[in-house]
Design a protein that fits this description.
75% helix, mainly alpha
């Protein structure tokens, strides 16, 4: 697998490009991915399970009866309190990540979510159900932040973009499990029709908590804790297949160590650093847009209120609603994973612009079909709405870059805070969606869709004007994306010095 290129004259990204051995022919890297995928991506399975279970439960008659047919503001708060729970913990997430590591953050988040799932299963009234939803929300930001960073910082460069994008799309795996469970239990004539799905929210977190112990810690985090030897050993084992003389590992380690030293030496490690320079303000603005766009693109209507959307076009049969929910999650997983594979080959800006343009066209068509149904009651119009929902999602899933882009535009010193910024704006947008959407649907029906159609046009303009390209670069290449040529030149100088120092050290060991 080792490249024949000289690490002293070539950069890490060039050496990786010359490595043509696929990951599945590298035993150590394969083992890493076997544990990394369920341990880190399992976080998004939990998030997807929550989103889909709330869709499914609305189509479960015993749940609807037990909580006295929640609609409008009550239904809104039952969904949106999850985001409030997440927002309440945001300030603590970077501290856990930077002080105790990415793995610790994942473990803390999943333990909290396990407790929340138990509480939701045991709920005997609305207040208890809301408390459980709040607790589930408290755990998710720790898990999402740690999981996204662990994938980005452990994966080999060739697979990193696809894996961080697949992390985003893994939401649908949890969604499929929840949709399938609620479809299977909704006819049970007791409270267990909704308590069984609530209990099974333990499943994704349980999988994560089992597999996490087979993973090493992020080598970048270890370097930041003055544990460089451990970081070196991890890179040798998984990126060099046990070869300490691998040019790829030697160059990656030198670039990683030099870049992080330059990055960390000028940081005050407080929240103020996010707004301390023009470059950092640009980073924050970008991920704030990403967080809002991920929730305000019309997807929130279907993610949490599919049953109510289907009712607006006359589809009121509970079994039919659950079947559509399950089918849609399966379709989304297929289209999302396809897009994740394409991330390695497609410029980020291209993916974003194709995605938002397609969403704008399909959402406008969805709005038109809904208006037609409202006027005529036509079954053809109702079918067109369902068709537009399925056509909309390949475009929504066509840019699964929320965490890929966030991890790329933030250097290590601010990466944990960057994931919190994107989650904070995402959760605020989600809270607004979850609370306002059922009110809008109840009061003005299909006309509410016009708001999202206009907003999608705004998104397209912002992406075209503001989003930089990051494809084909390593995390170290992107560390000073907004700082200018002088900082990049200093970085390259430091990398060369680190290579020379590492070379002298190895020579002394051999001697």
């Amino acid at each position: 697998m080792a490249s024949s290129l000289d690490p002293n004259t070539h950069r890490f990204v060039d050496l990786v490009a010359a490595d043509h051995t696929p990951w599945y022919r590298k035993p150590n890297l394969t083992r890493l991915y076997i544990f990394l995928i369920p341990a880190a991506m399992g976080v998004e399975w939990t998030s997807g399970f929550d989103g889909s279970i709330m869709n499914g439960l609305q189509a479960v008659q015993t749940w609807d009866n037990y909580f006295h047919q929640p609609r409008g503001a009550i239904l809104g708060i039952m969904n949106s309190i999850y985001s409030l729970g997440a927002l309440s913990m945001m300030i603590f997430v970077p501290w856990v990540n930077d002080r105790y590591g990415r793995k610790a953050s994942i473990v803390v988040g999943n333990i909290i979510m396990v407790l929340g799932a138990v509480l939701q299963t045991a709920s005997v009234n609305l207040g208890m159900f809301l408390a459980a939803r709040f607790m589930l929300g408290m755990g998710i930001p720790f898990a999402l932040s740690g999981g996204s960073q662990l994938i980005g910082e452990l994966a080999y460069q060739k697979e990193r973009p696809s894996l961080t994008s697949a992390f985003n799309v893994s939401w649908y795996i949890g969604g499929i499990i929840a949709a399938g469970v609620t479809l299977g239990t909704f006819q049970i004539q007791s409270d267990w029709a909704w308590r069984i799905p609530s209990l099974l929210q333990l499943l994704p977190s349980g999988i994560t908590l089992i597999f996490i112990w087979g993973l090493p810690e992020s080598p970048r985090w270890l370097i930041s804790q003055d544990r460089s030897e451990e970081a070196w050993e991890i890179l040798v084992k998984y990126h060099g297949e046990g070869d300490p003389n691998s040019p790829i590992v030697r160059t990656e380690y030198a670039e990683m160590k030099a870049t992080m030293a330059l990055d960390l030496e000028s940081k005050n490690r407080t929240w103020l650093e996010l707004v301390s320079t023009q470059a950092n303000l640009k980073r924050c603005a970008l991920v704030a847009f990403i967080g809002v766009f991920s929730q305000w693109s019309g997807n929130g209507l279907v993610s949490y209120y599919l049953s109510r959307v289907l009712e607006t076009v006359g589809i009121k049969n509970k079994r039919t609603q659950n079947k559509i929910n399950l089918s849609l999650n399966c379709w989304n997983l297929i289209t999302g994973m396809t897009a994740s594979w394409l991330v390695t080959y497609t410029p980020r800006r291209t993916m974003y612009l194709v995605s938002v343009t397609g969403m704008l066209i399909t959402f406008a068509s969805w709005t038109g079909a809904s208006a037609s149904y409202a006027e005529t009651g036509s079954s053809a119009a109702a079918g067109a709405v369902v068709g537009m929902i399925f056509l909309y999602y390949p475009f929504y899933n066509g840019a699964p870059l929320t965490y890929t882009y966030t991890i790329e535009v933030f250097p290590f010193s601010m990466r944990a805070k960057g994931t919190v910024v994107v989650q904070t704006f995402s959760r605020f947008a989600s809270f607004f969606n979850q609370f306002v959407n059922p009110i809008g649907l109840e009061n003005i029906g299909w006309k509410y869709y016009i708001v999202y159609t206009i907003w999608l046009a705004v998104e397209a303009l912002v992406i075209f004007l503001c989003f930089p390209e990051t494809k084909g670069k390593t995390l170290e290449d992107l560390a000073f994306l907004f700082e200018g040529d002088e900082k990049v030149a200093e970085q390259l100088k430091r990398v060369e010095m680190q290579k020379e120092a590492d070379g002298r050290e190895r020579a002394m060991v051999v001697a």
